Every structure is written in structure tokens, then in C-alpha cells.
């Protein structure tokens, strides 16, 4: 059965739109700034998705597109200037960055209350992608209704989630900065056990066959029905192109009779990821 990510996203978006409206009445400005280095069509499409949602919920949106890779010092200076701008509520840096700019320390140049993706140490924010995964766990194991109660609160929901997942075997495939890594960090913060596999893992299929939940973030086809157990849950994060169409890390037609639940691609966890980005942005506005 397909997990109804679209319906869940629609309900959560209504909540965000209402919260933005309330903040505007209190004369609070809410603006997201996105940095993108390069002009990859795939990255530009991800930015456009974020821009569309910003327009729908009523948030200001600024896109800074640096088409050629700048020196590290120049890039950092621009990030700092933008961060110190009082009109900036939150900043995200579209990943992946070019190799000469790719370092976790890049986030240290964003004010901690404006770094809304949860990269910095001692941040109050959790990864939007990680929160999106927990939302699907909440739907599957705690609150099986597509409504506003699915928004995850790390202070109040973790107890019930930990209890529901205590005896579940969870496997994450991939460890990239836009997939497996932030999911793993969020599950670790929530004290939910999991096994992480990647391209270097020996005989990863042995872990897949025992898994109750598999989170795929590989960006290539890694799951076939013969290597998962009957009733497994599949949540896809990875994206690849096949014959010009977006696909996930498994073929939905192949797994639908084996998996008890699975996400579709496109239209799966992606919209939830973006909505949690804006949830963090709204929380940042409340802190100002």
C-alpha cells in the first residue's frame, strides 16, 4: 500500500499557512534565503519546489544563485552578510556544493538561530528530512490518520515513537549529506536504533532481508522484491532518472505485493522534507 504522503503534506501545509498568517498579524517578517552554487537543472528544480511552497504559505523567498564557483573566502563573506541581515529569518545552502566549498564548517558562518537545517552543534533545529521520516513512522505506528496531528514534536512524540519502534529492525541505505546522514543523525538524537549500510557494506542484502523498515537514500536502484521480507516497509529518499522520468531506489510495481507500505517517487517524502524546512523557518521567526 502506498503511504499517503500527498494527503499528509496537504494537511501539514494548512497548519503552516495558518501559522504564517498569525505571525504576519504580529508584524513579524519571515524570509528564507537559499544559496545555490552552479546551475544544475536538477538543483534548480529543487529550488523551484521550495519557492512554490513559500508562495503558497506566504513566506518571502530570496534565491542567491552563484553560477561559477567562488573562492571560499568570498562565499563565506556573502553567507555572513546575509545571515547578519535583520530581514533574513533562515538560510539554507543547496547541496551538494562543489568540492572546494564542501565542508561542514560552512554552516558555522550562519547565525545559529538562522541555520534551520540542523547542521550546527547545539542547534535547536532538527533535520527537516529526519523529521519527515519520523512523521511517516508516526503515521505508520502511532497515529494512522493524515491530519495536522502528524507534525512531529521532538519533545512530546519521541516516547511513543521509541516504544512503537523498539523491536523493529530499521536499515538506512546510503550516508550522503542530503539523505542517509541527516536521517541517521535524527534517529540517533531520538535514540531510535538502526543499521546503516552503504556501497562499502559487505553483503548488505542480509540486513535488508531481516529489516522491518528500509530507508533508501542511494540514488540508484538497490531494492528488488527478492531481497526484502514480506510485509517490510519501504521509505524512499533517493532520486534517479530513468528514461527521462524520476524514479526512486526501487521499482514500485515490483515491490507492491511484498512491501506492506511504501512511498512513491515523485510525491513521496520530498514534499514533507520541504514543509519541515518551513516549519523550522517559522520556529526561527518565533524566536526573533
Brief characterization of the structure:
The protein has 288 residues and is α/β, with parallel strands linked by helices.
Architecture overview:
It is a single chain. The protein has 288 residues and is an alpha/beta fold. The chain folds into two domains: 5-122 and 271-287, Rossmann fold, CATH 3.40.50; 128-267, NAD(P)-binding Rossmann-like Domain (Rossmann fold). It is 39% helix and 14% strand. It contains nine helices and ten strands. The strands form three sheets. It has a five-stranded parallel beta sheet, covered by helices on one side. A hairpin with a 2-residue loop joins strand 8 and strand 9. Helix 2 crosses helix 9, helix 4 (128-141) packs across helix 6 (180-189) and helix 4 packs across helix 9. Residues 162-287 form the Tetrahydrofolate dehydrogenase/cyclohydrolase NAD(P)-binding domain. GO terms for molecular function: methenyltetrahydrofolate cyclohydrolase activity; methylenetetrahydrofolate dehydrogenase (NADP+) activity. One of its GO terms (biological process) is tetrahydrofolate interconversion.
Labels describing this entry:
288 residues, alpha/beta, Rossmann fold, 3-stranded parallel beta sheet, 39% helix
CATH top-level class of the largest domain? Alpha Beta
Poorly predicted sequence stretches spanning 5 or more consecutive residues: none
Name the structural class. Answer: alpha/beta
Round the mean pLDDT to the nearest integer and report it: 95
**Termini Cα gap:** 42 Å
- Give the biggest sheet: 5 strands, parallel
Give the total of domains.
Answer: 2
Spatial shape: globular
User: Which topology of the largest domain does CATH recognise?
Assistant: Rossmann fold
What is the CATH H-level superfamily of the largest domain? NAD(P)-binding Rossmann-like Domain
